[in-house]
Amino acid sequence: MAENVTDLPQQLANIPHEYRRQRITENELNTAVGYVGSEWRSIAKQMGFDEKALEREQMSSPNDACTWINKIFVQWKSREGDRATIFNFLKILWQSSLNDSRVNWFDVYNVLVRPVELQTLQQPIQETEPKR
Predict the structure, then answer these.
(1) At residue 3, does pLDDT exceed 70?
(2) pLDDT digits (tens, 9 = 90+) for 80-127
(3) Backbone angles phi and psi of 23, in degrees to 5
(4) What is each CA distance from 71 to 53, 80, 127, 129, in whole angstroms?
(5) Are the C-beta atoms of 28 and 112 separated by less than 8 Å?
(6) Beta bridge pairs of residue 85
(7) C-alpha span between 96 and 124 (Å, rounded)
(8) What residues contact residue 42 under an 8 Å CB cut-off, 6+ apart?
(9) Distances (CA, A) of 78 to 4, 5, 25
(10) I need a labelling partner for 93 at 20 to 30 A (CA). Which of 20, 34, 119, 132 fits?
(11) Residue 119's pLDDT is what?
(12) Distances (CA, A) of 128 to 12, 35, 121, 124, 125
């Protein structure tokens, strides 16, 4: 089913095309872990994980939430293959925020997407000499 971009927030609807295709890296997922906090269950369920899988990961490192949240994200990335894009990850965070989650998907957007947009804007324009 095609997604209706008018249903997405403006930042996601207008995300640069390369983020729709670019696979998210484990480093980017690890960065996002710091923004998830206690809302990780809502996000993991949006990713398609069931409660038993979440409990298993939590039991594997009971005192290290960042480790098991990261494991869930990496498992999602592995399972999704080429569909594990920055865009799809941000869309999951946004969808989780609609379901009573307090995760601020836009903070993650600003970390993963915004710096590259700003860097592109700050690159000097190369002038070319007119042809004679």
Answers:
(1) no
(2) 999 999 999 999 999 988 876 677 888 999 888 876 554 444 444 444
(3) -65, 140
(4) 11, 14, 47, 53
(5) yes
(6) 23
(7) 38
(8) 96, 99, 100, 101, 103
(9) 26, 26, 11
(10) 119
(11) 44
(12) 34, 44, 19, 12, 9
Could you identify the residue written with the tokens 């005192």?
63
Assigned token pair, 127: 């002038």
Residue 81, phi-psi category: left (phi > 0), alpha (psi -120 to 50), beta (remainder): left
Residue 53 in contact with residue 9, Cβ under 8 Å? no
Of 90, 83, 102, 94, which Cα lies nearest the Cα of 39?
A: 102
Tokens (6 digits) for 26: 């484990």
Q: Is 73 helix (H, G, I), strand (E, B) or coil?
A: helix
Length of the chain: 132
How many Å separate Cα 91 from the centre of its chain? 7
Q: How far apart are CA 46 and CA 60, in angstroms?
A: 21
> Cβ–Cβ contacts within 10 Å for residue 122, how many?
7
Predicted local confidence at residue 27, as pLDDT: 94
